[in-house]
Amino acid sequence: MKSIDVLKLSTRIFKTNVMRTVLTILGIGVGIGAILFLISLGYGLQKVILDKIASSDALLSVDVVAGISDEIRLDNALLEKVKQLDSVAEVSPLVSYNALIEVDEFSGGVTADFLSSSYFRLAGLSVEAGETFEEGEDDKIVVSTAVLKLLNLDEEFVEKGEDHNVSITVIIPRTSEDGTEAIEGEVELREISRNFKISGVVSDDNSPFVFISLANADGFNITEYNQLKVKAKDKKNVDILKEDIYNMGYTVTSISETIDQANKIFTVVQIVLAVFGIIALIVAAIGMFNTMTIALLQRTKEIGIMKAIGAKNRDIRKLFLTEALLIGFLGGLAGLLLGFLMQTIFNFLLNMLAGAMGGTSLDIFYTPTWFIVVIIGFSTFVGVLTGVWPAIRASKLNPLDALRYK
Length: 406
Prior knowledge:
Elements: H1 3-10, H2 13-16, H3 18-53, H4 56-59, E1 61-65, H5 76-83, E2 88-103, E3 106-115, H6 118-123, E4 129-130, E5 140-144, H7 145-150, H8 155-159, E6 164-175, E7 182-202, E8 209-213, E9 227-232, H9 238-247, E10 251-254, H10 255-298, H11 300-308, H12 313-356, H13 369-395, H14 399-404
Parallel strand pairs: 3-8, 5-7
Antiparallel strand pairs: 1-9, 1-10, 2-3, 2-6, 2-9, 4-7, 5-8, 6-7
Helix pairs in contact: 1-12, 3-10, 3-12, 10-13, 12-13
């Protein structure tokens, strides 16, 4: 029997047993749809979270801090030394002080972080309102949402883009004459009073901090930094850079380590979610096996006639396996439609709820293209696998017994 004849005979199941075939396809579709929905949820959550914390520059950057030893200091000498390393493309320092910020009649204690504009890029920091400042924009500051609450301001204040008389009083610990040691209990107050513009807001309701251009700290006689952001020239140089700085005695961390840990966690989550989907698919496969077995019993006499007029055992096997393949393939397509429909509805309801509560809308589902291909192939494979036993049993039927079957 030619392959085209086998295919034509296989499509008869859609004419003779329409309801049973459609329900079987939908059963497979529900299982595949559940897998698609759950796995896409896992990938989507992973993408949403990692997109928040990672950028291309941030992935190439490492954080350098002094560690616990008093002998190890992040001073200007180290800054120049790090810049000379072959693996380094860029260095951005940060120095933090306790400070008091005052706008109009409101004031509060904050952490003042003095940094260059490149720090935002290397740290992967993004603002939820407004924008960060660039080099030379010394009259702009970026604050956390906690500072807005502290000063009784809202994001509209930022979006208006107006200059306001913002007074920032920085509390600087006094140091010894050589600037190497802080004198316990002694501080110096430095006031920066000018028409600052709050240009951007970073989402953080717990920590009141202000990002200020490092140029505003020119008169502070900075001898030591709290942190360095160091960017490697390329990905292969990140580990070399970390080792070089670690060998100098400093503590080195990178966001890539955090992402690696997060990816491991999400892999486990995706496996757990996939297990739930596979359970649904197994139930559907059992239903399909039952359908194929019933079809075998109902078509016993038909198989006997086909064998009597010359059909070989392999032709009967091919017929049943092709039917199973078609059901599995169409079940996969139905699963894709159901899965994407469930994603759309769930995402719409979630964003509607988020909007009602004042949150931002986002897409928590992500389906890689390769996964769509894999899931169609997997559905087809499950269909064929389910049809193997009925196909073998049908091919072994004795023509005479089959013709006498009632």
